[in-house]
Amino acid sequence: MPFTFNRRVIALPAVFAVSALGLAACSTASSPSASDSAGAGVSDEPVELSFLVDNAEVTVGIAEALTAAYTEAHPNVTFDIEQRPGGTEGDNIVKTRLQTGDMTDIFVYNSGSLFQALAPSKTLLPLDDVENMSAVSDTFKAGVTADGGVYGIPAGTAMGGGILYNIPLYEELGLEVPTTWDEFMANNEVIAEQSDAAPVVQTYGETWTSQLFVLGDFANVLAVDPEWADKYTANEAKYADGSPAIDGFQHLQDVADAGYLNKDFASAGLSDGMRMVATGEGAHYPMLTFAFSELQANNPDNLNDVGLFAIPGTSGDSPLTTWLSPGYYIPATSEHADAAKDFLNWVATPEACDVQTEAVGAQGPYFVDGCTLPEDVPQMVADMLPYFDAGNTGPALEFLSPVKGPALENIMVEVGSGIRSAQDGAALYDEDVKKQAQQLGLEGW
Amino acid sequence: MTDTLHARTQEAPASIDAPDRTRKARKRSTYPMWFYAPAGVIYGALFVIPTFASFYFALTRWTIFDSEFIGLENFTTFFAEPYLFESLLNTLFYATFTSGAKVVLGLLLAVFLSSQIIARGYLRSVVFFPVLVSAVGVGVTFSVLMDPFDGLINKALAVFGVEGPGWLTDPDLALFSVAFVDVWRGVGLATLIYIAGIVAIPQEYFEAAKVDGANAWHRFWHVTLPLMRPATTTVIILSLIGGLRSFDLIWTMTKGGPGFSSDVLASVVYKQYQAGFYGLSTAGNVVLFVLVAAIIIPLFWFLNRKEVDQ
User: Considering the entire predicted model, what is its pTM?
Assistant: First the structure.
């Protein structure tokens, strides 16, 4: 207390001096790395590439298999794989590490709107000059392009978002795969009456899983209004405006109101949901096909008991909503950019696709020219392929519009738990996305 | 040396009322001024500058690279958050509930644990033990215990034929359950402060009261309780501040859910930050700062004034 006055006099200039030192240290630390990456080509010097992946079984499996195969061919390049949580917590880690210049040499992250939110032209290294980029499909490139530069190499395969269903239960009850929402609800009624299975599985113990009814319904929205995503980005279309956009919210309210949800919907997690739909405790589970690896790990005997259909819309032949795979990116601050690029160049080859298939099984179609799937793909993937072959797919909204609010999962949990109505939920979500649009500096918000 | 130190410890509290004495005290300092520089630099760089910088950045929409000044827009957005008001109420409920429960339970436990009972030392450590465990560990443990179907609590209730509720999944119950765990975890510290307060009361008061014919209840009500006011003040202030900015337990147990039903200010701010709305979450932190200050400073003044009056 007695020294307050004097201390301040001394401390303030000192603080400025120290912070200036800190800044100077930063700039000297980062400049050699920049010259490194621009300079010498690939050498045989031993390099250790750090590699940040999310902790989903399939991502880790692919990363481990790819790096092991690459190190075998190039013994001088070794990898240090680091895991991070997924979901919004993972977004936070990736953004913070990128912005503080503390990112690993290579990292896995979503493509599409989440990728755009990384400010790619400032934080990432453009990969246009990677030789095999020409073999990567244009669909994928569109999801990892910002300001004219391409920044990512596909990590894994395309995903579908639809309804996973238990095939033995369908056979037992003599049900048909539904093509419209009304048929789907009729099936649910039969299941509720004639079996012990929960007609629809929801797992709010992991909140992100709640979004599928809305996100997976987007191909149906596009089928009705192909311009919807552009209007949405321009702040001209809203979820709360009514059908078709609001249907996803309404569908969840319908199944919740009818009492079709599993008893433990509020506490169950993804692995519980997959177990239920695999063993017939649950009949339907709206999910992304990447959850297949969960099935592989926990219920290998039921692999072919789980099928997939697109979330049914109002008219028949509903298209499947598809997701691009995440991408591998190199941060602008990487000190081993050339070695990392060389590795990613190899990842975009059919050889690398085969390594992935061997490690985690066939998950879906690859984005690299020349990559093939084995003959005997599991049922879930087999059900997905006809949609791709017939072109009956639509991209998820996040690949057409950068506008995605962070609270959708919580709002969907509210709708599914009966706390909020579908109409209210949609209106609340429309409010939520405003912040994202403003943060991105979009026109018209 | 000891003399100067002694003089200073006596000086410090007095200087609050008499600022003119600070000058005298400064002259008497044993240490050169630059002794304080390292601490000052660290304090300034890590606390003072960020605090004032945050007041500015709360008025901008920023990424690490650039910031755009947008005036009070972040604050209007923050207060227009449909669930912000709910989270504000939740914060106040959570802070008052946990703080009140800690005062009452802490006082009762302290009276009990400072009486002549068997295994007193052991019981004291048992009460204090949860304080030593990390909040995240406590949160994860309790979220497992409170699982509606596989949790130990509901399984135990099922033995008696009671169907336990979804402690953390029922929107009406979630915040209450977390608050309960917070009390369980924090009551040990309150008890400790109260025990110290009780032990410091001179035995003469109790003896005098006994001579005057006071029974145990009278002695508690008229001797222990009034003399514990400083301890009560400390417990209230500490637990109220802790409650207002509580985050760790809520995040590990419910993540603010189901939906937004157990969101408090700190978890809303964290979610905004996660979503990359840095300006908005900075604004939220400023709101939290103002809220804590607006509640604690008058309360502190009020409680301390009462103390001086007596």
Answer: 0.79
